[in-house]
Design goal:
The structure is a single chain. The protein has 213 residues and is an alpha/beta fold. The chain has a single domain (3-202), classed as NAD(P)-binding Rossmann-like Domain (Rossmann fold). It has helices at residues 11-22, 38-44, 53-59, 72-79, 81-84, 116-123, 159-171, 185-188, 191-202, and strands at 3-7, 26-30, 48-51, 62-65, 88-91, 128-131, 151-156, 175-178.
Length: 213
């Protein structure tokens, strides 16, 4: 599992990619615009590779989906069933609509009874999706410095896939909170809305969630 394929080329993909490289992984970012990642690849060194979505999916023993929610299904469709079958896919996407926030509240294109991850899991039933890193901004994703260890909420249908993702979550400095099966993404994805409200209203973007016990 030391080879990670990341589907996406934006700030989340680049941040998580750099985090994996920091911890000794080889990483390939999949993109439709390879030139966009030239600076990132140069900065990250020999463990950083760039290719197409298909090449990243073939390269990675574990995959990370880090694209806009509106294009998540399209990105996976470009890869296809064969390269996704039996793969663990750490899903960092959120179903954020293209419309502007309302009083600081993001708008979603899903409803409360079906998450984006459930839609993707239904479209690719032989892949093992695990929701993670969807409820915090990119600046705090990898080994953040807080007074206490923050909580990362995950969910998915495969226990073995969740174990793989949990190991990464812990490596990246988070306490894992397993919320169960894919249906729990209906609750996890809206945490993105809650996380963003202080940012939109007060320009506060450096917080995280903690589940107190």
């Amino acid at each position: 599992m030391k080879k990670i394929g990341i589907i996406g080329s934006g700030i989340v993909a680049q941040t998580l990619g750099a985090g994996f490289i920091k911890h000794g992984y080889d990483v390939m970012l999949g993109t439709r615009n390879i030139d966009k990642l030239a600076a990132w690849q140069s900065e990250q060194g020999t463990k950083a590779k760039v290719g197409s979505f298909e090449e990243a999916a073939e390269f990675g023993k574990l995959l990370v989906l880090a694209v806009k929610g509106t294009v998540a299904k399209t990105a996976l469709d470009l890869i296809g069933n064969f390269l996704l079958e039996n793969k663990t896919i750490m899903d960092a996407t959120n179903p954020i609509a293209d419309q502007a926030p309302e009083n600081g509240v993001l708008q979603f294109f899903t409803n409360q009874n079906e998450s984006l991850m459930e839609q993707l899991q239904s479209a690719y039933p032989k892949a093992n999706f695990v929701k993670a890193f969807s409820s915090v901004g990119s600046a705090k994703m990898v080994n953040p410095t807080f007074e206490i260890k923050p909580s990362m909420f995950i969910c998915g249908n495969s226990n073995s896939a969740k174990e793989q993702v949990s190991a990464i979550v812990e490596l990246f400095g988070w306490e894992v909170e397993d919320m169960g099966s894919a249906e729990a993404a209906r609750a996890i994805e809206p945490l993105c809305m809650l996380w963003c409200i202080p940012g939109f209203l007060h320009n506060q973007w450096t917080h995280a969630f903690k589940l107190l016990k």
